[in-house]
Amino acid sequence: MKIKFGLTILVVLVGAVALTQLVFAEEKLPVIRANSTKVSIRDGYAFWKSYWNVDPEVKPNVYTTSRKYEESMFSTDLESISFTVKPNKPYRFIILLNGKDSVLTEIAYVPSYLETLKRAAKYNVNDGRIIPKFTYQSAENPNLQSLRKHYKLDSIAGKGSEFSQVVKVLSWLHNLVPHDGMHRNPEKMNAESMISVCKSEKRGLNCRGLAITLNECYLSLGFKSRYVTCLPKDSLKIDTDCHVINMVYLNSLKKWIWIDPTNNAYVMNEKGVPLSIEEVRQRIIENKPLEVNKEANWNNKTRVVKEEYLFSYMAKNLYMLECPVVSEYDIETPKQNKFPDRAKSAEYIKLIPVDYFVQKPDKQGNSYITNNSKLFWAKP
């Protein structure tokens, strides 16, 4: 995880030797000396020793931060420079490396994930672009019946409320198959095959594999369920990380609920009522109370911390959301190995905010694009 903070204009000389001024590209820039490429950074109360590397071949070396109006300090092995960051005003200085290489360094403010999400609060329920209706495979499907029987999912779910059944199946899969973000998922992307491969090879699945597997388990039990790819804004195509979770419809609550198999997590309001992805996103934006179940964890090793999980990681990844049009068994197995008579591959619907910089075309690849949150979150 990258640590990002913020900066801009106030320069303080530190050390016995006053900083000289160089003219670089018609700018008079402050200069600090260094014999090492390692730079330490102090930001408020936090200190990162030898955290950043300067590279004379890169012009400029850009350091980004999301902390506004806080004093920060860059320290080489010889000298230091301090600054206070302001939005929309990049700050430049020179690191003179080994007395000969002038390394142009730029400090730039970027909005935090939470700020970016807040700017993306608005959808357009009047967006008239035509998108398909979401559909859900029946539990009577032979593949789903086989999955249900093979893993005794009725016994795992138990006889309790809908919510307790959903949570029990979530915990069962979380304990059965670990999260493994370092390897690709098996080629056959269905629950029976992926669980079998994980057992035989003693491996896990990434978040997408886990969500697809859990989705099929829920469908086999008669729940309407989708897996949801949660995407960042990624305007520079740098952040390729996303997260995939599930949404399950509970008739008893007449709503969808958030389910995350990677973290054995669901999210509630301050009264303990389970929330949907739509509700969690809005509450993050509005700074309303959110709670994560106490059992939430990663691979039974690391407890989920609400602030990091929701207000940082998921704030980043709730910018855009995408679901398959058809929620069914084996939907993401490469089509050349399945249903050779079908010309089309799986199709998706992507919900984007009106803030997003790419609104056209109406279908991008195999994804229909919409601003209409009402259609995207439609009840089954």
Cα shape: elongated
Q: How many DSSP E strands?
A: 23
Q: What structural class should be given to the helix and strand makeup?
A: alpha+beta
Strand order of the largest sheet: 14-13-12-19-21-23-22
Rg measurement, Å: 25 Å
Uncertain residue ranges: 1-26, 337-344
Mean pLDDT: 88
> How large is the share of residues in beta strands?
25-35%
Q: Portion of residues in helices?
A: 10-25%
* Number of alpha- plus pi-helical segments: 9
Oligomer: single chain
The major β-sheet equals:
7 strands, mixed
Distance between the termini: 37 Å
Can you tell me about this structure?
With 380 residues, the chain is α+β, with helices and mostly antiparallel strands. Helices cover 23% and strands 28% of the residues. It is built from 9 helices and 23 strands. It has helices at residues 113-119, 142-150, 153-157, 162-176, 191-201, 207-220, 277-286, 306-317, 373-376; strands at 13-14, 21-24, 27-34, 38-43, 46-53, 61-65, 71-75, 80-84, 91-97, 101-109, 135-136, 225-231, 243-250, 255-259, 267-268, 291-292, 297-298, 302-303, 320-324, 326-327, 348-351, 363-364, 367-370. The strands form 6 sheets. A 7-stranded mixed beta sheet has the order 14-13-12-19-21-23-22. Strands 1-8-7-4-5 form a 5-stranded antiparallel beta sheet, with no helix packed on it. A hairpin with a 2-residue loop joins strand 22 and strand 23 (367-370). Helix 1 packs across helix 8 and helix 4 (162-176) packs across helix 6 (207-220). The protein is elongated. Mean pLDDT is 88; it is low at 1-26 and 337-344.
